[in-house]
Amino acid sequence: MHVPSSSAATPIHSTLEDFDSRSGSLLERALFNHRRLVLLICLLVTALLGWQATRLELNASFEKMIPNDHPFIANYLEHRQELSGLGNAVRIAVINKKGSIYDAAYLQTLQQLNDEVYLLPGVDRAFMKSLWTPSTRWVGVTEEGLEGGPVIPDGYDGSAQSLEALQRNIERSNEIGQLVAFDQQSSIIYLPLLAKDADGKPLDYSALAQQLESLRGKYQQQGIEIRITGFAKVVGDLIDGLRQILLFFAAAIVITAVVLYWYTRCLRSTTLVMACSLVAVVWQLGLLPLLGYQLDPYSVLVPFLVFAIGMSHGAQKMNGIMQDIGRGMHRLVAARFTFRRLFLAGLTALLCDAVGFAVLMIIKIQVIQDLAVIASIGVAVLIFTNLILLPVLLSYVGVTPAAAVRSLRSEQAEIDGAGKQAIWRFLDLFTQRRWATVCVLLAAVLAGGGYWVSLHLKIGDLDAGAPELRADSRYNLDNAYLTQHYGASSDIFAVMVKTPAGGCSSYDTLQRVDNLDWQLRGLPGVDATNSLALLNRRVLVGLSEGNPKWYELVNNQATLNMVTAGAPRGLYNEDCSLLTLYAYLTDHKADTLGRVVDSVQAFAKDNDSEQAQFLLAAGSAGIEAATNIVVKQASHEMLWWVYGAVIVLCLVTFRSWRAVLCAVLPLVLTSILCEALMVWLGIGVKVATLPVIALGVGIGVDYALYVMSIVLAQLRQGASLSQAYYQALLFTGKVVMLTGVTLAIGVGTWIFSPIKFQADMGVLLAFMFVWNMVGALILLPALAYFLLPQKPVVSQAVVKPQTLRETLPEPATKPPLHAAIR
After folding, report:
1. Could you tell me whether strands 89-96 and 224-230 are parallel, antiparallel, or unpaired per DSSP bridges?
2. DSSP string, 679-744
3. pTM of the full predicted structure?
4. Distance in angstroms (rounded) separating the CA atoms of residues 610 and 604
5. Residues in CB range of 259: below 8 A, 6 or more apart
6. Taking Cα atoms as reference points, which of 315, 370, 298, 407 lies closest to residue 756?
7. pLDDT digit string (tens) for 455-474?
């Protein structure tokens, strides 16, 4: 109901002469009474950090991707020197397109490629393996006993006789299915990698991937085909895809700018908001090299998140100043009043964002901890660029008069008797009993259903190959080829068996290893195994003229010692105190890894003794299993911490536990539905996706803070919930709607990225942007109806504030709105 009001119809003309520059908080006076100094400092900092940003490096580290504190990884690192190649390695499959590998031209090309990759920086040359390395040997049984040697025969010259000898040696080497494909049309060059190059610098994976691609292009012109897999190649492909990622960033920025300009119709204010958000990104990127940080393929998305958060807060400041100017205030006065009203809410929101990032530090995986630090730095600089620099800039530039008038169009329409716009009337329904009840019940049903679905959420990768990349990417096609043609997949799970020195060949120890070998081979997802016990069985068959009935582990220590003496060093170490049992898996899906870990742990519990201790785990699959365990433990612990911190900050801001519930419960619903969405889309919780869940809480609370701050201020001045919520919609709610939809569209474009984990993040972030917005605009007022105490309104005509300008702070009459909040 509209009630005419002379005060409502009269604009507030706050000139500089009327305004007391000594009013406001100490921070406000320090900033706005020294505006030129503030701008000069920001300009110098931007120039300095912009120059520093040019020194920022983009790289990745295998060691940063693994949980170094986990017992599995501790065992691996303790024996790392004896297990070289079981962590970070590259496999290069060289395919003869014209026939088998027993071809002189193919072998010559393989030798040339072998010699070139041997010299690549970061290669652990002592453990490199291919047909041309001396460590690749054969063992055979003759009338005179066991014989052996390198698979490449002495005096090899490419003749037919040499090729026949090579074929015999390969068939006796037990390398078919490992270094040689089952169809014998390809062979592998196995490159274990060191953490640092010869100069002691961290291995540059981007450069290594480029060198491998250069070799691929060079040798594929010689009638062969090359397939490459390994962590270094995944990182290289991710870094190559960053060029397209930058295009998506640019598209998101353009979309945001266009929508913001459509809303404001003011080029200068839109440009300032965009500029301040980009300045925040420049400051963030400039601080990273100063603090010794690098960007990696996982943290490279953080600068856009910082930009998105900056746009959200900047739009709120711009909207407040625009409305005040529309009410007749001078741009400097409008900037100061908006600073007073929204600084506390904005600061609390940014602190919640920072907490959402900082909580990731509890996850003991360095790449996530680095992401947390990098993101927290970005949020910290937003306090200066978007809460301080932007209002100061707008106090000089202001907005266009037409844009200022347009920002009050809804408010003026109601004053003129046109009533509320349709969308405001719809949202206002949720402050009424019937609609609020339906909304809360529906939210409860969604929460219950979402929670039931989220119980099926998997930890780890749910797809074969590299899930960070598309299924049809070149890497995943290469990986599929190796899995199909080799029994020894790239997903190696290694169990370490620790014994007393010299005890690795004892019958009791080998029998236990043999039992575990058989147990693992029967598990779904295990393609093949290899161990010293298995070698003893094979050798005994060879010594028995190939009779399969002698496929046994003989209880004869002299025979066991003889076989051990000639066994490859990859099966045991120099002092015979460590055995290694290899399980070659079909994939590294969460279920596959879980089965293997459970099986080995149960076996170790029953069979560990002083003579043999079964330790988990090495190999790429073993390390990933440890990572999954850490992620699983941290996933819910992380949410408890982030929600706890957000609740405390909201409680300090609102001073009302009821208001805190209104703000936090919509976030809880979004978190539950996000996990349900991950189940539906087949996205597992892993290193790449775990941060998104925490970020959704920290970023999402921004919307609730801006809406609830105005609602509480209005309620405490005697307004009804409907009146208070309407004023919140006019002042901050419509910008919440604007930024929620705009940012969702911006990150939604990531769906088309060639980098799958970026596409996954885009889907999840867009979902959370939209649902947090919906929660702040629909569920929050519905909860407020039941939770927030409302003072009885005796006469609506007397109490109702027709427009927000009646509750705005004036120089000598009314306290600032943020004081009302406190």
Report:
1. antiparallel
2. HHHT--BSTTTHHHHHHHHHHHHHHHHHHHHHHHHHHHTT--HHHHHHHHIIIIIHHHHHHHHHHH
3. 0.76
4. 12
5. 738, 741, 742, 745
6. 298
7. 888 887 777 777 778 878 88
